[in-house]
Amino acid sequence: MTRSIKPLVAGNWKMNGLKADLAIAAEVAKGYDATLKPNVDLAICPPSSLLFTATAALIGSRIATGGQDCSTQASGAFTGEVSAAMLADAGANFCIAGHSERRTLHGETSATVKAKAEAAQKALLVPIVCVGETKDEREAGKALAVVRKQLRGSVPEGAGAATLVVAYEPVWAIGTGLTPTAADVAEMHEAIRAELGRLVGKQAAAGVRLLYGGSVKPSNAAELMNVANVDGALVGGASLKAEDFLAIARACAG
Ligand code: PGA
Asked: What single DSSP character describes residue 200?
């Protein structure tokens, strides 16, 4: 945790959720009480089909919403794409950019991720830029170098604390139940903060929220959130259960 930064817990629903599942968001809103609100920000990133209704359902709760991806393009003949302005128009505040599932399953390069993050910023969304190494890269001792390189390629120039969130998500920890040790997370988050300092300036970097993501659940959240330079979590599977998401939020609120 970084004392001066209000943590953020963001739920990434991935390709899950029909209208009926907005009950999850409603339950999260109910549990996001006066003890939590001052100490942790929450965001839910539903599939884009639910973004408008999810945002409407969360009005008054102070829970933000976000898209999971956006187009690099502003508008036009790009069948199937959703622009950042459309996400903003549907009520989103955030947009995930460069999730490892996009990088691996859709071949997104860091240059693409950067263009998406910039498109998000242009639409006044805060991009949650994801970085993380594969299992092979970690075993080869290349995790830090890989993540630094992804950051250099993916972070928009001139991004400041208010306009950027970075999520460290080791690919091998996503949806597997595996997590890095607290020491490994500490080492990586310190390296990310330092690299961001070189990219956007030390002062701006000091205020950027650095989330950890990858198999965060109620049972490991407190340990992970207590690591230096961890300012919240990006939560996949556990964000689909209101009770678990709220337990992670409580762990993050300290
Ligand atoms: P997980 O996913 O929490 O299910 O591991 C995290 C993510 O992909 O953002």
From this structure: H
Full-model pTM: 0.97
Ligand 1: which of 174, 215, 216 to mutate, most ligand atoms within 8 Å of CB?
174
- Judge whether 188 lies within some domain: yes
Q: What's the domain range around 167?
A: 8-232+243-253
Please count the structural domains in the chain. 1
Cα–Cα dist 151/171, whole Å = 15
For residue range 182-198, list pLDDT tens digits in order: 999 999 999 999 999 99
Is 1 domain-assigned?
Answer: no
**Mutate which of 135, 172, 215 to test ligand 1's pocket (most atoms within 8 Å of Cβ)?**
215
Q: 127: part of which helix (H) or strand (E)? A: strand 126-131
Query: Do the domain assignments include residue 237?
Result: no
